[in-house]
Amino acid sequence: MPAAAQRVENLPPYLFARIEQLIAEKRAAGVDIISLGIGDPDQPTPEHIREEARKQIEVPENHRYPTSRGMLAFRQAVARYYARRFGLELDPEQEVVTLIGSKEGIAFISWCYLNPGDLALVPDPGYPVYAGGAILAGGVPYYFPLRPEKGFLPSLEDIPTEVARQAKVLFINYPNNPTAAVASSDFFAEVVAFARDFDLLVCHDAAYVEVAFDGYRPPSFLATPGAKEVGIEFGSLSKPYNMTGWRLGWAAGCREAVELLGRFKSNIDSGAFQVVQHAGVKALEGPQECVEQMVALYRERRDLAVAAFREMGWRVEPPKATFYLWLPVPDGFSSAAFATHLVEEAGVVVTPGTGYGRNGEGFFRVSLTLPTARLKEALQRIRRVLGKVSFAHV
Ligand SMILES: *Cc1c(COP(=O)(O)O)cnc(C)c1O
């Protein structure tokens, strides 16, 4: 066999391999493992969206190759969503491209901009695809820290000028996975100014913009004055409509970036299945009560998880958005050791913070995407194992 290409070898090691092996061993031994590790909605796609897909699958035209940039009808639905939700006008023909899930665009945007050795500014902790896409493109991630004392927002002024000058893309993500942090329009305005100063393309991952609680409505980066000239925003049907398996998202914003992504995609994939795009139009334009119901369900789970962790000794505020809790590990544990301890002793899986970068050390992520009864059971087991915890270091 020939040797693997360097770009694949350069990918960071897969940090969950050891814990996944442990889970597999436990399951094989008959242990009932509850996973709080997976960020994938447990509820089905709403009925009216499934109904649209059933209808569209009978239309022979939809069985053919789609266009790689996506159906105009879907891109128009995205433009109308932006107008309705954020008051932002978008040209569906030139400022929106359909994606096979936002993940593909997040990975491919680096291929569109990075030459070998070029820098991508990447949050740490962060969704692993930002660095992965940059590395596969031959680029080099420069990790900037997200720290609790700054509300997990980056301190852009701490990025060395020389680094910012050399970088071509900047990834940000609010509401944030894994920290559940949110960003204000003021912060986004700072990002626009920073991007102008250093001639960067801002890539904002807005996957959780519709998963927010207690009346909070997260802003769009793209709707920030000047953002459309320096950035694109990745949107996804996955989280608001429980459509992770359907693979549908978009990139919107800066014309040049949208055009490049479309051109790039036409050489790699042939676009999203039209049945799925029709279903996406239905999701965006149909009744939105399903989103409210989903949010209400996550809020109920969030509140019971926050209450349980508080009883154990955590000082935790209920997150304003996303379906995650990002918590410090108790004294005496590394992130990995704590996650291993919970699998061994409680049969519960949490994600060690280091899976999202070095600055994730000292934290773990809990996902609320499992049936409420199972979540309760998991929390009881954790309490049985941990009792009261202490946090000298916090
Ligand atoms: C779930 C998620 C996405 C969405 O990915 P899709 O490819 O659209 O399913 C993007 N970014 C983050 C941070 C996520 O957690």
Task: Produce a short descriptive summary.
The chain has helices at residues 6-9, 17-28, 47-56, 72-86, 102-113, 129-136, 161-166, 185-198, 227-230, 255-266, 274-285, 289-312, 335-346, 372-386; strands at 34-35, 96-99, 119-124, 140-145, 167-172, 201-205, 231-236, 249-253, 324-328, 348-349, 351-352, 363-367. The protein has 394 residues and is α/β, with parallel strands linked by helices.
Describe the protein:
The structure is a single chain. The protein is built from 14 helices and 12 strands. It has a 7-stranded mixed β-sheet with strand order 2-8-7-6-5-3-4, with helices on both faces. A 3-stranded antiparallel β-sheet has the order 9-12-11. The chain folds into 2 domains: 6-44 and 289-386, Aspartate Aminotransferase, domain 1 (Alpha-Beta Complex), CATH 3.90.1150; 47-285, Type I PLP-dependent aspartate aminotransferase-like (Major domain) (Aspartate Aminotransferase, domain 2). It has helices spanning 6-9, 17-28, 47-56, 72-86, 102-113, 129-136, 161-166, 185-198, 227-230, 255-266, 274-285, 289-312, 335-346, 372-386, and strands at residues 34-35, 96-99, 119-124, 140-145, 167-172, 201-205, 231-236, 249-253, 324-328, 348-349, 351-352, 363-367. Helix 8 (185-198) links the parallel strand 5 and strand 6 (201-205). The chain is an alpha/beta fold. Pyridoxal-5'-phosphate (PLP) binds next to helix 5. The site of pyridoxal-5'-phosphate has 14 residues, from helix 5.
